[in-house]
TrEMBL record:
Primary localisation category: nucleus
Residue ranges of every copy of the DDE-1 domain listed in the record: 208-343
Ranges of residues in domain HTH psq-type: 22-56
GO CC field: nucleus
Recorded GO MF terms: DNA binding
Protein's recorded name: Transposase
Location of the protein in the cell: Nucleus
Length: 445
């Protein structure tokens, strides 16, 4: 067990030699260049130890054997990997509980475990024996995203391959809108030990501003397109921003058909008109992003429009995969510095300046992040396996089938599938209005 062991001094000395010297001594004896006695003296290895290793006699490991045999642990490791691939990785207690159930059903009684439940020491030893397993923080993924199947993505790449034919990397454009909140987020601070809550004085709000970004396959960033939540647009809201940026407003603060069409005409088209050959634009499948005018402009300018499968942007969209996260980190840092010096919420007159500073703060890393995003999404260079190897097939592969035949039942596999896709029983049903009469004590449906 992995405890703080201290070697006891005494007449008996076990394994006080380097394993490398043991290998050299064995090789020398088997080659016939040295006798066992001479090799023992030359490499400082006990004669009996070297004799056992040369003749392959009684080569048992020190200490008590593990509770599970090697074959049993190998099957357990394969099952754990399958569960993690399905999106349900096990915690340390889950693994220990599985071992307890296995021992109980097998009729085995392990005296080192309390009620056959392994302790944390066993778990640490188990992890040390299997270096292909590791411990990481798990990120929660919504079921709608997990429901994106291997087959759906495979079909998407089959269509994308046709769309990318004869299209240079510079002619590939990925767009997406994101929002910038008026809150730099929580940070770790130093306070007195024992207090329950740590507070810092900073004015924040729930307001946010939408910005459309577009990146090209050769690492370029197009000017951002900002949409404010307002009925009117004022000149002060457009000053001090990133060069060639565009600004607009909607009542909701999000992109609608008009604002998207304006972005396409004023930002995407000017970029494409300076390029030769076919062009490709990749984006999400929001219905508000496609209008008749946009489709007509695509036909006139030899632009191919590719829509991503629903709920797949975390896998297939370069902006989401590699660009937005470092950029948002830069935004929160710059916003925090501004709020420490100023009172109140972030004015719209200041937003363009902070957005420009955030873009410039990413600096030289921007191109590298963009290229890494297109590569991770299998677009530039085209390589579907980059994404497909991260996904789960609905049908188990050959190696998984053998494990399931010996360790899993069809009910468990079906249960994992149900957990992954979820049930729609709790979905909200169509609501009915309740008509309430004035000055009455009851309501009727």
């Amino acid at each position: 067990m992995p405890r703080n062991y201290r070697k006891q001094l005494g007449p008996r000395q076990n394994r006080n030699y380097d394993p490398v010297y043991l290998e050299r001594a064995i090789a020398a004896v088997r080659r016939g260049t040295l006798s066992i006695r001479t090799a023992s003296e030359q490499y400082a290895i006990p004669y009996t130890t070297l004799h056992r290793w040369v003749n392959n006699n009684n080569l048992l490991a020190y200490g008590r054997p593990p509770a599970l045999e090697n074959l049993e642990e190998e099957k357990l490791v394969k099952v754990l990997l399958i569960c993690a691939e399905w999106g349900f990785p096990m915690k340390s207690f889950d693994i220990r509980y599985i071992v307890q159930q296995y021992l109980n059903k097998s009729g085995k009684r392990e005296k080192r475990f309390s009620d056959n439940l392994p302790g944390l020491d066993w778990f640490k030893s188990f992890m040390a024996r299997h270096p292909n397993l590791t411990i990481k923080f798990a990120e929660n993924t919504k079921r709608v995203r997990a429901a994106v199947t291997y087959e759906v993505v495979e079909t998407y790449f089959a269509n994308l391959k046709q769309s990318l034919k004869d299209v240079p990397s510079a002619n590939v454009l990925n767009y997406d809108e994101t929002n910038f909140a008026d809150d730099p987020g929580a940070v770790k601070v130093v306070v007195k030990r024992g207090i329950k809550h740590a507070h810092r004085i900073m004015d924040t709000s729930k307001s946010s501003t939408s910005v459309m970004f577009a990146i090209s396959g050769d690492g370029n960033l197009l000017p951002p397109y900002v949409v404010y939540k307002a009925k009117h647009l004022y000149p002060g809201w457009t000053e001090g921003g990133f060069p060639n940026s565009r600004y607009n407003r909607t009542v909701s603060g999000w992109f609608d058909a008009n604002t998207f069409e304006d972005w396409f005409v004023t930002t995407a088209l000017p970029y494409f008109r300076n390029l030769d050959g076919p062009k490709l634009i990749i984006g999400d499948n929001l219905c508000s992003h496609l209008t008749i005018s946009v489709i007509q402009e695509c036909e006139k300018n030899n632009i191919r429009f590719v829509l991503l499968p629903p709920n797949s942007t975390h896998l297939l969209q370069p902006l989401d995969v590699a660009y937005f996260r470092p950029f948002k980190r830069s935004w929160r840092s710059i916003l925090e510095k501004w709020k420490l010096k100023n009172r109140g919420v972030l004015p719209k007159t200041v937003f363009p300046t902070l957005l420009k500073e955030s873009i410039e703060a990413v600096g030289a890393k921007s191109t590298a992040n963009i290229l890494a995003g297109f590569k991770a999404c299998g677009i530039v260079p085209f390589n579907p396996d980059t994404v497909l190897q991260k996904m789960v097939r609905l049908r188990p592969q050959e190696g998984q089938e053998r494990v399931m035949e010996t360790s899993w039942t069809e009910a468990i596999v079906s249960h994992l599938s149900d957990l992954r896709s979820g049930s729609n029983d709790a979905a909200p049903k169509k609501r009915e209005k309740i008509n309430c009469a004035i000055r009455t004590e009851h309501c009727s449906i």
